[in-house]
Amino acid sequence: MQINVAGLMKDPIGSVRTYEIDGEVDFGDGKVKRVTGKVQLLRTPRGILVQVEAETEADLNCSRCLEPFSHPVSLKIEEEYLPTLDILTGERAPVPDEPGTFRIDERHIIDLTEAIRQYTLLAVPMKPLCKADCAGICPTCGQNLNPSACACPPSEGDTRRAKLQKLLGK
């Protein structure tokens, strides 16, 4: 997902351009996902402020049943891209002090791929579930309990608390 911003870099500060995006992004694991949405570019004194609202999906494994599933992800990205070269003089621009700054390359192209990849990783839930009522797997035999229950006898529970449960009348 690349956008040429040479014209916008020559425009006055405050100039805005809006684009629709619909393309594929390689998330680095060999899986390519479709990303759709809109991008707004705003010329700033230092570079270009990029604001993205997009939709994509991530391939995850359920934290209960361990089955793979596809999870929809909504992205809201706001990053300032700084130029590598001065558009008017062609001289190399100073390197920014902030680590991890997104850059506009020597051909005045903004590549949204890395920002989309990073924001997608941040938007993924820590403990993803394939569905809210996922039954998980049997702790004895390891069978996925979502399609059907397994034949294992019900567990007796934690025997370390048996005397306490007896006192409570359970």
Notes on the structure:
By secondary structure, this protein is mostly beta strands. 13% of the residues lie in helices and 36% in strands. It contains 3 helices and 7 strands. It has a 5-stranded mixed β-sheet with strand order 2-3-4-5-6. Strands 1-7 form a two-stranded antiparallel sheet.
Topology:
Blueprint: E1 2-4, H1 6-10, E2 16-26, E3 32-43, E4 48-61, E5 68-83, E6 102-104, E7 109-111, H2 113-123, H3 162-167
Parallel strand pairs: 5-6
Antiparallel strand pairs: 1-7, 2-3, 3-4, 4-5
In short:
With 170 residues, the protein is mainly beta. It has helices spanning 6-10, 113-123, 162-167, and strands at residues 2-4, 16-26, 32-43, 48-61, 68-83, 102-104, 109-111.
Q: Give the tally of β-strands.
A: 7
Tally of separate helices: 3
Spatial strand order of the main sheet: 2-3-4-5-6
* Main sheet properties: 5 strands, mixed
Entry keywords:
2 domains; two-stranded antiparallel ribbon; mainly beta; elongated; 170 residues; 5-stranded mixed β-sheet; single chain; 7 strands
